[in-house]
């Protein structure tokens, strides 16, 4: 069950853009699941997971609250299974990732397979699209890119565990979302 640290957005504009790719077999990512993975940790056992969460619990983060968007594409390039929105590189974003790496790596060897490329997956499909569909998907990307908002606002940063589409937040490191009053 993979563990990762992500920024969440909940932006209906991105969801509406993602729905345009459903005609090509992609499924739009629900707004509450839209995220930018800051750090993919891997699959730690429960002992290491607990140590990681406790290590991160003490952090005081100063993340960028607004991220600039700069285009769309298909990832990974060898499968084209995800429609993504690219986030403009921001020094605070990369600094935040380095801080998280330092703290997590005290307790677990990271298994992030890909270099950090800040993006938000807005739609996905289980398998690569048929080659005859790819030009239509690319045309849809070009057309919908004009509708892309300039920015998105970060709602929260969480340590998340996922398994077969089920996400469970283990710790909110930062949140602009008000919690219900008890």
Explain what this protein looks like in three dimensions:
By secondary structure, the chain is α+β, with helices and mostly antiparallel strands. Helices cover 25% and strands 32% of the residues. The chain has four helices and nine strands. A five-stranded antiparallel β-sheet has the order 2-6-5-4-7. Strands 3-1-8-9 form a four-stranded antiparallel β-sheet, with helices on one face. It is globular and about 45 Å long.
Structural class: alpha+beta
Q: What's the total count of β strands?
A: 9
- First-to-last CA distance: 32 Å
Strand-and-helix sequence, N→C?
A: EHEEHEEHEHEEE
What order do the strands of the largest sheet run in, or round the barrel if closed? 2-6-5-4-7
What number is the mean pLDDT? 92
The value of Rg in angstroms is 17 Å
Contiguous low-pLDDT stretches (5 residues minimum) are none
Shape: globular
């Amino acid at each position: 069950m993979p563990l990762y640290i992500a920024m969440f957005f909940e932006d209906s504009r991105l969801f509406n853009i993602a729905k345009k790719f459903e005609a090509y077999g992609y499924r739009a990512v629900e707004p509450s699941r839209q995220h930018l993975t800051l750090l993919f940790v891997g699959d730690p056992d429960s002992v290491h997971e607990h140590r990681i969460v406790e290590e991160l619990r003490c952090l005081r983060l100063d993340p960028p609250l607004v991220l600039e968007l700069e285009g769309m594409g298909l990832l990974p390039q060898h499968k084209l299974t995800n429609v993504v929105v690219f986030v403009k590189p921001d020094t605070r974003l990369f600094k935040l990732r380095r801080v998280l790496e330092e703290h997590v790596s005290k307790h677990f060897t990271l298994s992030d397979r890909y270099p950090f490329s800040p993006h938000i997956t807005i739609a996905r499909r289980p398998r690569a699209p048929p080659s005859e569909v790819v030009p239509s998907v690319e045309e849809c990307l070009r057309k919908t890119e004009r509708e892309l908002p300039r920015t998105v606002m970060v709602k929260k940063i969480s340590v998340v565990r996922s398994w077969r589409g089920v996400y469970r937040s283990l710790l909110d490191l930062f949140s602009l979302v008000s919690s219900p009053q008890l």
